[in-house]
Amino acid sequence: MTTRKKHLLPGFGLSLGYTLVYLSLIVLIPLAAVFIRTTELSFNEFWAVVTTPRVLATYRLTFGASLIAALINLVFGLLTAWVLVRYQFFGKKILDALVDFPFALPTAVAGISLTAIYAPNGWLGHWLEPHGIKVAFTPLGVVVALTFIGLPFVVRTVQPVLEDFSAEAEEAAASLGANRWQTFYKVILPAIWPALLTGFSLAFARAVGEYGSVIFIAGNMPMISEITPLMIITKLEQYDYAGATAIAAVLLVISFILLLLINVLQWWSSHRHGAR
Amino acid sequence: MMHSTQLQQYQGKIAYKRATSESAWVRWSLIGLALAFLGIFLLLPLAAVFAEALRKGWDVYLAAITESDALSAMKLTLIASLVSVPLNLLFGVAAAWAITKFDFRGKNFLITLIDLPFAVSPVIAGLIFVLIFGLQGWFGEWLIDHDLKVVFAVPGIILATIFVTFPFVARELIPLMQAQGKEEEEAALVLGASGWKILWHVTLPNVKWGLIYGVILTNARAMGEFGAVSVVSGHIRGMTNTMPLHVEILYNEYNYAAAFAVASLLTLLALVTLVLKTYVEWQAARDAAAQEKEVTV
Amino acid sequence: MGITIQQISKGFGQFSALRDINLNVPSGELVALLGPSGCGKTTLLRIIAGLESPDNGQVLFDGVDTTHADVRERQVGFVFQHYALFRHMTVFENVAFGLRVRPRETRPSNAEIKKRVHDLLKLVQLDWLADRYPPQLSGGQRQRIALARALAVEPKVLLLDEPFGALDAKVRKDLRRWLRRLHDELHVTSVFVTHDQEEALEVADTIVVMNHGQVEQVGSPQAVYDQPATPFVYEFLGNVNAFETPQGKGFVRPYEIAVSREPGLNSIAGALTYVHSVGSLVRLEIKRTDNEQYVDVELGREQFNQLNFQQGETVYLKPTQLRVF
């Protein structure tokens, strides 16, 4: 009976042990610090810190702008994935590779570059400004930055599913008399829906925590264009560790819930995919 | 008889073409719309970096990237990457080995924990190390007593970088090694190979491209990280400034040309990353295709 | 080297893969573990190899308890179902692997390795493929390379998991004759797993028929085919007709039935519904009048031509041999 659980390949203890120790030291213990330090505040103090009007305004902007940016990426990400998978055109391969550019570009560079484009004297800014559209240094700028950094997610989750999608199902729909649009929303869309949702939540989750690309273009005016991660830094710079930690705890909990949601979505999507 | 079936097949082919593709008008509208979106959100920011960097000419550009603070920022960025990439590589291989070659309880939970740093805001990634090693942190007093500095110093920057790049290699390797199964390792074992030999001669060569891919992504993120490093750095010029932080400082001093000059180097790094990444994907796809092809003699 | 299996049991969670298996493989024999998928035959093979450990029982090699010995110490050669060739190594390096990973003291010199590998490649008649990579080989070639790799370490026991499973019918037939000849040449105790009765009957000295984690019968091909010990063995090896008799269920092979136009004592009436006459045997499909079940009958072509049955005709059947369980 003692040999029952014996592992065949060597190195189980060493590799798992190393994994757990490293994971604990770098990730788990440091993250726990946020929650442990938060308990230094009483609940009332905690509540007061995380619900001041200025902090509440940052939540509204962070989540609102993240949501809008993720929605933009949902639509245009699907469009981009569709065009890249289905059509042939000049420069397609280069564009395909460039989709990952926002992943690879340091966020600070993205931030100053977008600011340069949308500033009142920038390439796009000087076209938009006369029409009363201000992008840089307004909440709209935040949406632009978050759209940029979230761009690859929907494209990269939908693309493989669209590639694998069997031509037979489409042909079957067509043979049964469906037109292109009906085929798309009755046959193709349901099949890529889990992937779309996963990409959407990944883009949203990334946007909620984003800092570097936003702070340059946002203008960071309290109550108007200040995001929650910046609020944490502001508190830190005022040596208000407790305040910074409390807000971080709120943001962390929300991020964890999003991560959980994404895992459930991916599980759902892989099961649907596998069952097909 | 023969002739009419051929005709039917031919007609069927035309009908199929029509049934599962859009009209040219729709097709080109969709392509146009996608190109406009990618143009505004990808190409424009890319072009803007270089246009702004060279706005005041080559001399200013060269001066900005060869100035001593810029050079020390490059050095620090390189150090942070040189330390965090190997550490996370080692971790990724160990984690993937444990997770894909053995069955144990809580495996899926462990995978989720490894993914955690992806879900955490970079700002919080910096904050946690301040909470532990900062002046008011858990080890703050002990560090002062021993005259050691973590936060607002190089070790803090390295720690934050390790944290934000933590999952990349593991994430690439785990699905790959899962898909390859254990049979080759078992075969090596029956032939008498030790664990290290199996890892080195059998497992790693099989996941070579995934491994390189993970390293490329880790390196790109390590060199470009801003938020987390910004919190722990203290922004001491020439001392604790990485390249992205140096860009921020120059920018905030309204020295736009210099800021964009340094930024252009980071942008080039991003482009090189994309090229390497595409190359690795291409190689991996080629290997996979070669494996599926079966020659019968 | 002889292998003795004593009271081996193995479960995976709720599922019991092997129950109290006892088996003896004499030295130098070629033994087939035969059974339907999920019968536990591969698990048993992996336990012999040391790739799996049993919950209970012992594995003895030449009387020595090896149950807890490491795979690497057992000196077994294992040929995996999908060959598990190392994709990134040449054929030569694949075969040399087992020699190269030996500790320095017992590792042969490079020249020796080279000679050994080439000898083995010659043995499997593939020395011209030494510099190819596994993906460039056909299924049958991969199979033989996998065998050469297993033999390189001079195993005391050769274990093969569905060695011909992944091959097409023609290659399969050639390879199994070749394996038989190779075994006659090398005389290494060999155990192979298969679900194909024809394969087991043609290649093995001894067949172990397994079902639901238990051994149903052990014997020579002749013995298990002609004197099946259980209804399962009867049905699994070859075609068989089942009859309800007052004593229990009776089994008759299709060639053990006499057919005539005249009713006889205890004969069964039926309609000839189909005549399949390709090859030396003619297969008749007869629908019984009493219970509408179908009976398969095989006749020699000459006999059939003499009797000249017509489709739709009423005929009378009588088993010449009936085994009742």
UniProtKB/TrEMBL annotation, chain A:
GO terms for cellular component: plasma membrane. Residues 59-262 form the ABC transmembrane type-1 domain. The keyword Membrane applies. The complex is composed of two ATP-binding proteins (CysA), two transmembrane proteins (CysT and CysW) and a solute-binding protein (CysP). This is Sulfate transport system permease protein CysT. Keywords: Membrane, Sulfate transport, Transmembrane, Transmembrane helix, Transport. GO terms for molecular function: ABC-type sulfate transporter activity.
TrEMBL record, chain B:
Its main location: membrane. It is found in: Cell inner membrane. GO terms for cellular component: plasma membrane. Residues 74-277 form the ABC transmembrane type-1 domain. It is a multi-pass membrane protein. Keywords: Cell inner membrane, Cell membrane, Membrane, Sulfate transport, Transmembrane, Transmembrane helix, Transport. One of its GO terms (molecular function) is ABC-type sulfate transporter activity. The chain crosses the membrane at residues 25-51, 76-97, 109-138, 150-170, 211-236, 256-276. Gene3D superfamilies: MetI-like. It comes from the Bacteria. The complex is composed of two ATP-binding proteins (CysA), two transmembrane proteins (CysT and CysW) and a solute-binding protein (CysP). Part of the ABC transporter complex CysAWTP (TC 3.A.1.6.1) involved in sulfate/thiosulfate import. Probably responsible for the translocation of the substrate across the membrane. This is Sulfate transport system permease protein CysW. It comes from Methylophilus rhizosphaerae.
Automatic annotation (TrEMBL), chain C:
Residues 3-237 form the ABC transporter domain. GO terms for molecular function: ABC-type sulfate transporter activity; ATP binding; ATP hydrolysis activity. Pfam families: ABC_tran, TOBE_3. Keywords: ATP-binding, Cell membrane, Membrane, Nucleotide-binding, Sulfate transport, Translocase, Transport. One of its GO terms (cellular component) is ATP-binding cassette (ABC) transporter complex. NCBIfam families: 3a0106s01 (TIGR00968). This is Sulfate transport system ATP-binding protein. The lineage of its organism: Bacteria, Pseudomonadati, Pseudomonadota, Betaproteobacteria, Nitrosomonadales.
